[in-house]
TrEMBL record:
A single Gene Ontology CC term: plasmodesma
Species: Salix brachista
PANTHER family in alphabetical order: ANTIFUNGAL PROTEIN GINKBILOBIN-2-LIKE (PTHR32080), GNK2-HOMOLOGOUS DOMAIN-CONTAINING PROTEIN (PTHR32080:SF65)
Top-level taxon: Eukaryota
Protein name (database record): Gnk2-homologous domain-containing protein
Major location (coarse): other
Similarity comment text for this entry: Belongs to the cysteine-rich repeat secretory protein family. Plasmodesmata-located proteins (PDLD) subfamily.
Pfam families referenced in this protein's UniProt entry, alphabetically: Stress-antifung
Length: 239
């Protein structure tokens, strides 16, 4: 056993998106968002902690594409956890802008909510007072398909090949991957929250949800899948 390969990769969420015309796809496009039902009291220490956490995420996103933060508080219910994950093909500048945009939208979408998460095309942001870092999440949060294009076996084969590619692990750690066959392209992004002290088996530690977007000529398919088993495995260290 060994090096860092024994550190298991934990992914909580992946986003995939594909671009018909890659250069023109906006990283700011809304994909999904959700808020905790519980509300905090405005003006409370909880609110200051949320603001501190989100500000830290925004600042950090200008120089890295993934980070997590914990804002500790004397009372555990006011302790906050948060992370952001930018798509692997974004520059630091674009990542920073995307996270800033997501945080700003979260503030509106999840006004006074104790927790919230938002996925834009280019980045994912989440905060909560229940720890979720390193915890896999297989929830399908979005299932969205483009216009039907009728049965086209070539197209379907290309799509399936793409999904297979995205979901296949070769043992190396690839939190971000892109693929393209014919007119179909795809992108997958795992959230890189690792858990160094986790001993659960391989099944559990890998991936989670994926958002896949495929665009073939006219077709746009966006789905969240949880089959991306080994895709984001960090090394083959697990038994
Ligand atoms: C999170 O914060 C809310 C609002 O203050 C509180 O009601 C809830 O109990 C907290 N949850 C945890 C897990 O501490
Ligand atoms: C959170 O970030 C710290 C570094 O700031 C890192 O050591 C830790 O592994 C991260 N935790 C998770 C769950 O990603």
């Amino acid at each position: 056993m060994s090096k860092i390969s024994t550190v298991k990769a934990f992914i909580s969420l992946l986003a995939i998106t594909v671009l018909a015309v890659p250069a023109t796809s906006s990283t700011d496009s809304f994909v999904f968002g959700g808020c905790s039902q519980l509300k905090f009291t405005p003006g409370s220490p909880y609110e200051s902690n949320v603001n501190l956490l989100l500000t830290s995420l925004v600042n950090s996103a200008t120089f890295t594409t993934y980070s997590n933060f914990t804002v500790k508080s004397p009372t555990s219910q006011d302790t906050l956890y948060g992370l952001f994950q930018c798509r692997g093909d974004l520059s630091n500048g674009d990542c920073g802008r995307c996270v800033a945009r997501a945080v700003s939208q979260l503030g509106t979408l999840c006004l006074d909510s104790s927790g919230g998460a938002l996925q834009l095309e280019g980045c994912f942001v989440k905060y909560d007072n229940a720890t979720f870092l390193g915890v896999e999440d297989k929830t399908e949060v979005l299932h969205k398909c483009g216009p039907l294009i009728g049965y086209d076996s070539d197209e379907m084969n290309r799509r399936d090949a793409m999904l297979d590619y995205l979901g296949t692990g070769d043992g190396s750690y690839k939190p971000f991957r892109v693929g393209g066959v014919g007119g179909v392209s795809s992108v997958a992004q795992c959230v890189q929250d690792l858990s160094a002290n986790n001993n659960q088996n391989d099944e559990v530690e890998k991936t989670l949800a994926i958002l896949i977007g495929l665009i073939a000529a006219v077709a746009l398919l966006i789905v969240f899948l949880s089959f991306l088993r080994k895709a984001c495995e960090k090394g083959k260290g697990g038994k």
